[in-house]
Amino acid sequence: MPDCDVLVIGAGPAGLAAATRAAETGASVAMVDDNPHPGGQIWRAAAGKAPQDAARWIHSAEQHQVEWIAGARVFAAPAPNRIAVEKFDGELELGYRSLILATGARERFLPFPGWTLPNVMGAGGLQALAKSGLPVEGKKIVIAGSGPLLLAVAKYMKEHAADVRLIAEQATQSALLAFGLRLAAHPGKLIQAVGLRAALLGIPYLTSCWPVAAEGKDKLEAVTLSRGERTWTERCDYLACGFGLVPNTEIAALLGCRLSDGSVAVDEQQQTSITNVYSAGEATGIGGLELALVEGEIAGFAAAGASARARTLFAARDRYRKFAEALEHAFAPREELKALPREETLVCRCEDVTLGRVRSCTGWREAKLHTRCGMGPCQGRVCGAAVEFLLGWKSESVRPPVFPTRIESLTRTEPPA
Amino acid sequence: MGKSYDVAIAGGGIVGAACAEECAAAGLSVVVVEPGPVGGGATAAGMGHIVVMDDSPAQIALTNYSRTLWMARAHEFPADVEYVSAGTLWVAADAEEMAEVERKRAVYEAIGVRAEVLGPRELAEAEPNLRPSLAGALRVPDDAVVYPPCAARYMLQRALERGAVVRAGESAAQLSGAGIKLRDGSFVPAGIVVNATGAWAPSLTPGIEVRKRKGHLVITDRYPGFVHHQLVELGYLKSAHSMTADSVAFNVQPRKTGQLLIGSSRQFGAEHGEIDANMLTRMLRRAQEYMPALAALTAIRSWTGFRAATPDKLPLIGPCPQDPRLYLATGHEGLGITTSLATAKLVADQLLHRTPAIPVEPYLPGRKQAEHD
What we know:
Chain A has 417 residues and is an alpha/beta fold. Chain A has three domains: 4-105 and 246-327, FAD/NAD(P)-binding domain (3-Layer(bba) Sandwich); 109-243, FAD/NAD(P)-binding domain; 341-417, no CATH class. Chain A has helices at residues 13-24, 52-63, 123-131, 148-159, 173-183, 187-199, 250-255, 289-303, 307-311, 314-331, 355-359, 364-371, 383-391, 407-411; strands at residues 4-9, 29-32, 67-69, 73-79, 82-87, 90-101, 105-107, 120-122, 140-146, 163-169, 205-206, 209-215, 222-227, 230-235, 238-243, 245-247, 259-260, 263-264, 277-279, 346-348, 353-354, 405-406. In chain A, strand 5 and strand 6 form a beta hairpin. In chain A, helix 1 (13-24) runs parallel beside helix 2 (52-63) and helix 8 (289-303) runs antiparallel to helix 10 (314-331). Chain A starts with a strand and ends in a 6-residue tail after the last helix. With 373 residues, chain B is α/β, with parallel strands linked by helices. Chain B folds into two domains: 5-46 and 148-209 and 313-363, 3-Layer(bba) Sandwich (FAD/NAD(P)-binding domain), CATH 3.50.50; 85-141 and 211-307, D-Amino Acid Oxidase, Chain A, domain 2, CATH 3.30.9.10. Helix content of chain B is 29%, strand content 29%. In chain B, strands 1, 2, 8, 9, 10, 11, 17 and 18 form an eight-stranded mixed beta sheet that branches. In chain B, a hairpin with a 4-residue loop joins strand 10 (179-182) and strand 11. In chain B, helix 1 (14-25) runs parallel beside helix 6. The longest helix of chain B has 17 residues, at 57-73. In chain B, 53% of the residues are buried. The mean pLDDT of chain B is 95. Chains A and B meet through strand 4, helix 12, strand 22 and helix 14 of A and helix 6, strand 12, helix 9 and strand 16 of B.
């Protein structure tokens, strides 16, 4: 007997929308997430207070009796229609009729000299730390990388009295202008973008600009930036970097779902190549909040068998997908960034493997076996995307545990006699 | 027809790499055909335990000889080979197994392998994370641990320095004493051909008695000092002996990185490489019976591999009776890393008509194999 009709993995926007819509049709729904609160990375609550949009979806999921399983990390799929999750206080297995993977995305890190110094961190990572109490008031912060996330992080930091020195956006001015014109077709997005830019008044937003080196003795003291012909050094306490997002596809891969171009491949009902396994949101391709919500709604309806209701949302999804394509095009990492790391720059920070050693191998598997690149506790989540960008190698198969998991969790389940 | 080599080796695992190094060192021209990364098959899947095993007189002779070769070379390995003389502790759970410890010690002493008996208190002091109330252990201090893929790469590198050639990314489709036919249809002619393709050897040399025996391993995050020796339960022998049932045994190894490798499992008839959740659970439960503190450690990866098993637990080293120019160097089961160096010596000794350091007869492919129970 399954524990629920629809099981949703991930409680960000896509997961919340999926769980709510599935539950509205009368299906029994459970939602698991490794965080203590729903909302995902984008709606991560500061001191227990979720943003307004998030609160609405969370409230609606609660109203429809979505069972909320917090602090639970999926690590294996021990049998068909069952997954195993690890919680702080133990392990449990969940059975389902339909599964929705709303596993979101993570930041892409690109290595450059000094990127492993303390206080160089992910842009989203710094924001998450600030939300959970890291004091940023008066701290000098440089935000670098690519994409709208940099603006959102800058806004948050500014609101919390940080001294945001500048935003270094690697994309060209012309790419952003072209993107801005396309925004005009999306009034909601335009307002959001204008709102962000307005809030950023006073923070220099430099296009075609990127960090070439982070410097400091024991921790970050300054960053050297490059823009066109000009190179200069900016003193700072934190360097927040994010070169776009990478879909989290590990659980989909573990289940055997087909991946395409680094994302979970889905059909028009958001169903993956495996019957009754659906996926929505950033895991199926980076597209932003609105697309994640509508994909989540479609997946929720479809997974609960309400495919006609799912169909009513296709037009909206098409609109947001066009926006997502424009976004991807405008902020695609530039070729020049491949030249940032030197041969001695670390690519894999878990196992201290330099670019030179990785480059001497013929592919991912050889690099793993002969240099241990990607073999540390992050399981290649950080260096995998970097190596794919730098050398074009795609990482190989996924095996359980898909997250580092306590030995006792791997052994709690009674094996059949 | 391309250039003819003295020796063409199918398989760039540790056995193929060691054979290439040995043959090249003897002045022979060598080519190695390997479709994947060097040491990417069972070599990468195994633990890398250099160990003297006393399952049979021939097994003791081979493992002891090969371990001597490893010990003599310990100083020359680059750091990434991670040769650590960690020693093995054969852990006895009860009085019956303690009797086995004594028997084993006498066997080792007779062949000059250092070994000492630890009582319960000495065992607890040596490995405080083992469960209390174990009966004792046999400590074999000169056993070692290596990182096999880099050991294989190092040996092959040495062969290349002596003029050997690697046909990387190419697969052998057919073998005969005359050479290797590749998947792309081309032919690599040679005076002697060596099948060193591990558990896949029967697909290139049909009819040989080698079966796949699947194993699982788990590696943890870094916990330096949690374990000091390679720890193996004495019951391991019972597990390794059985030719029929699936079995698990407590087998934990400290890596130079501070990580722990946890094994072991043995399965016949499992042809696919995916993780078997039940075997993994059984294996880790067995490990926790001996070492309860493992429960709280974090596992970061699991994988499987295929040992090349023969009915009498001894490898096949030497020419095939039906084709004296076609050599086999396979069937090492769980001892391929340990016995790779001795295998390479015995292969080169036979094809160069040198006098081997130990008798080769027990390992010749034409031998009558007594099935182990």
